[in-house]
């Protein structure tokens, strides 16, 4: 069995739209709650609240169309707070990262404090366009969890409390296995199907992919069914096995390729015998899976900025800029594990 772990399907992504300064308090309290759910000890929930407050204040004061995404780390071991906006970007990023730097008229105030408090801080910005931030927080004995090259976000449709999508990632040895599931439709019944799929996946995530998909198909028979995508990452290559409209893309700093989707059908209702497709993953490549709650047209001509985003910021960018609000949306991005010694 793999090294399994808290997943977004168990602790859903909290999406806080920062369209008014009142959202700062909501962001802080949400981060404190998520930190407690993740089991972060001592003063760490309060530190999570400070991080969320600083990032939300920046967005409220200086950014356009800002949002925070607050959740457990995809592979467990802590939590993360992701911030995204559509501009104006940060002109003097290194200056903003100095602890104690403040300003009244530009984005970036408080980032020095966030850098000091967070276990890791990752930022990418395009002056005039937008900024993406990922602050990860772990217990002192779990700091390695903050370096995981995995990003995942699962956001329900507007006006829905529960998401009919779900995702999971498990590492076992040098192999990384991921699931994205999209329950048919949205609402409570779709959410039930997604949770049934998660439980089935975690019974044997290191099983051969056709066996995993067949098990999911059996488990989903008493639900409305789902589209399912299963990805297995090895050093240098990947395997994909799926049914329905879960899309797969390989993204490198220079290229986008190997666009795949699942075989026709619906897991739990009708499915032909599963088959596996294998494809290479170049050094530095990221494999991305997403449900149809993400507009597929994002992949027609992504900017060089998007090509170079690390997995956590890549998923934040796609959800923030390409989510279809009437549907649940999930994006999972991962790189192969580094070869073990």
How would you describe the overall organization of this protein?
- It contains eight helices and 17 strands.
- Mean pLDDT is 91; it is low at 1-9.
- A hairpin with a 2-residue loop joins strand 9 (226-234) and strand 10 (237-243).
- A five-stranded antiparallel β-sheet has the order 1-2-3-5-4, with helices on both faces.
- 52% of the residues are buried.
- The chain folds into two domains: 14-147, 2-Layer Sandwich (Heat Shock Protein 90), CATH 3.30.565; 150-334, Phosphatase 2c, domain 1, CATH 3.60.40.
- It is an alpha+beta fold.
- It has helices at residues 23-37, 44-62, 93-96, 111-117, 188-202, 209-219, 304-307, 311-322, and strands at 14-18, 66-72, 78-84, 120-126, 130-138, 150-155, 165-172, 175-183, 226-234, 237-243, 247-251, 256-260, 265-266, 270-271, 277-280, 286-290, 329-334.
- Helix 2 packs antiparallel against helix 4 and helix 5 (188-202) crosses helix 6 (209-219).
Summarize the structure.
The protein has 341 residues and is α+β, with helices and mostly antiparallel strands. Helices cover 26% and strands 30% of the residues. The N terminus is likely disordered.
Keywords:
single chain, 341 residues, alpha+beta, Heat Shock Protein 90, Phosphatase 2c, domain 1, 2 domains, five-stranded antiparallel sheet, 8 helices, 17 strands, 26% helix, globular, disordered N terminus, Ptase_RsbX, Anti-sigma regulatory factor, HATPase_C_sf, PPM-type-like_dom_sf
């Amino acid at each position: 069995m793999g090294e399994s772990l808290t997943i977004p399907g168990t602790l859903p992504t909290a999406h806080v739209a920062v369209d008014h300064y009142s959202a700062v308090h909501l962001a802080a309290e949400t981060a404190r709650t998520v930190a407690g759910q993740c089991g972060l000890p001592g003063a760490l929930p309060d530190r999570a609240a400070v991080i969320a407050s600083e990032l939300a204040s920046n967005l409220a004061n200086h950014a356009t169309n800002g949002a925070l995404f607050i959740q457990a780390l995809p592979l467990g071991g802590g939590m993360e707070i992701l911030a995204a906006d559509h501009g104006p970007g940060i002109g003097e990023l290194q200056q903003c990262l100095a602890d104690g730097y403040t300003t009244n008229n530009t984005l970036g105030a408080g980032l020095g404090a966030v850098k000091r408090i967070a276990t890791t801080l990752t930022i990418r910005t395009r002056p005039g366009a937008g900024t993406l931030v990922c602050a990860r927080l772990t217990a002192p004995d779990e700091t390695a969890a903050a370096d995981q090259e995995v990003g995942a976000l699962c956001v329900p449709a507007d006006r829905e409390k529960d998401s009919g999508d779900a995702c999971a990632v498990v590492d076992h040895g040098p192999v990384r296995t991921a699931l994205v599931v999209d329950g048919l439709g949205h609402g409570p019944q779709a959410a039930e199907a997604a949770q049934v799929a998660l439980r089935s996946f975690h019974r044997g995530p290191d099983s051969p992919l056709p066996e995993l998909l067949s098990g999911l198909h059996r488990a989903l028979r008493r639900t409305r069914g789902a589209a399912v995508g299963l990805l297995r990452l090895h050093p240098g290559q990947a395997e994909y096995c799926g049914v329905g409209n879960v899309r797969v893309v390989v993204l490198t700093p220079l290229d986008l390729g190997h666009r795949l989707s699942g075989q026709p059908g619906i897991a739990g209702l009708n499915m032909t015998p599963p088959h596996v497709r294998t494809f290479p993953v170049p050094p530095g490549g990221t494999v991305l899976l997403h449900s149809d709650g993400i507009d597929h047209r994002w992949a027609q001509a992504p900017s060089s900025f998007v090509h170079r985003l690390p997995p956590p910021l890549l998923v934040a960018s796609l959800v923030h800029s390409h989510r279809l609000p009437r549907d649940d949306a999930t994006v999972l991005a991962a790189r192969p594990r580094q070869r073990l010694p």
